[in-house]
Amino acid sequence: MPTLVHLADERDAARILKNGIKPGKYRTGVFCMPVLQNFYVTHQWLRELKRRGVNSFVGIYFKVDSSEMVYAGKYNHQHKHITLGAAVKDIMGINDPLGYELIIDRKIEPGEITKIKALSQTIGWRYRPDAHGTKPCACDYCIRTDINANKLREKLRPREKNDDYQTLLQKIKASRYDDEIVSLLYEMQRKKRRSDPQELVTSFKTTNASVVETLVATLGYFRHKNTAAILRQFLLHEHSDVRERSAESLLKINREKGLQLLQQYTHDAVVQKLLEQEMADDQE
Q: In the predicted model, what is the mean pLDDT of residues 128-134?
């Protein structure tokens, strides 16, 4: 029965020991690595994960039967759905195992955990396995989870002064292209807004659901008194992703009031699932 390790925030260790390892809110499963003779390869993801701002990671070690089905492969390649035993043989047989990962699409029960161990916080690679000695990519996607993202971006890719809200609004009104509108909405998300978002919403002409979803996510950055009422309208949208993003934006603006308001929409499976996840997070 192979031993696996999941890297977790040290602050969550006691809770995990009691309740097990649950897939993250936006994750498809539990990420882990098999425990190999090569300590570095086993714990290779630690430094990369630390870029998200966690001060100290610990190793959560657990055992799973070798017949368990897992998703296995390098993070930037298609994963294979194979048995754990086959995945361990696979990683042991390749020349370059850096970037490899396993995903188990279920919760790891407390009884499967064998130990929790403190680790050196300097193990592993950052940005990408072969990045040593090269400058990291400073695009917004690559450094989106880096705790020093702003400093890194300014160092490697100094940007021009940001447009103010009215300028961005006028550009959105004038644009005929969905991808340009999405980029402008992301610009709006750079800081919290006190303006009334009604003009922004009424200026929208596109019916592209993904663009509307970005709009609704952007509304979560507005602190105007009309924002919640506008978001409630999107809770009735025909696309489930838009409704989910609307509920998340309501919670982002004011979590307590948002939870109370969303209780009125529990007939919607999307909202109900989000509320259940929020309650589970509170219990943890």
A: 63
Q: Write out the chain in H/E/C secondary structure.
A: CCEEEEEEEHHHHHHHHHHCECCCCCCCCEEEEECCCCHHHHCCCHHHHHCCCCCCEEEEEEECCCCCEEEEEECCCCCEEEEHHHHHHHHHHCCCCCCEEEEECCCECHHHEEEEEECCCCCCCCCCCCCCCCCCCCCCCCCCCCCCHHHHHHHHCCCCCCCCHHHHHHHHHHCCCHHHHHHHHHHHCCCCECCCCHHHHHCCCCCCHHHHHHHHHHHCCECCCCHHHHHHHHCCCCCHHHHHHHHHHHHHHCHHHHHHHHHHHCCCHHHHHHHHHHHHHHHC
How far apart (Å, rounded) are the C-alpha atoms in residues 9 and 32?
Answer: 14
Domain positions in the chain: 3-126, 133-159, 165-283
pTM, 2 dp: 0.50
Tokens of 166: 């009215």
Using one digit for the tens of pLDDT, what is the confidence trace for 80-92?
A: 999 999 999 999 9
The pLDDT tens digits for 220-258 are: 999 999 999 999 999 999 999 999 999 999 999 999 999
Torsion of CA 18, 83, 66, 58, to 10 degrees: -40
Using a 10 angstrom Cβ sphere, with 0-12 exposed, 13-18 middle and 19 or more buried, the burial of residue 26 is: exposed
Distance between CA 68 and CA 266 in Å, rounded?
35
Choose which CATH entry (3.40.50.970, 3.20.170.30, 3.60.21.10, 3.10.20.30) describes domain 3-126. Answer: 3.20.170.30
Backbone Cα Rg of the chain: 22
Is the separation of the CB atoms in 105 and 71 below 8 Å?
A: yes
The C-alpha atoms of residue 43 and residue 125 are separated, in whole angstroms, by 10
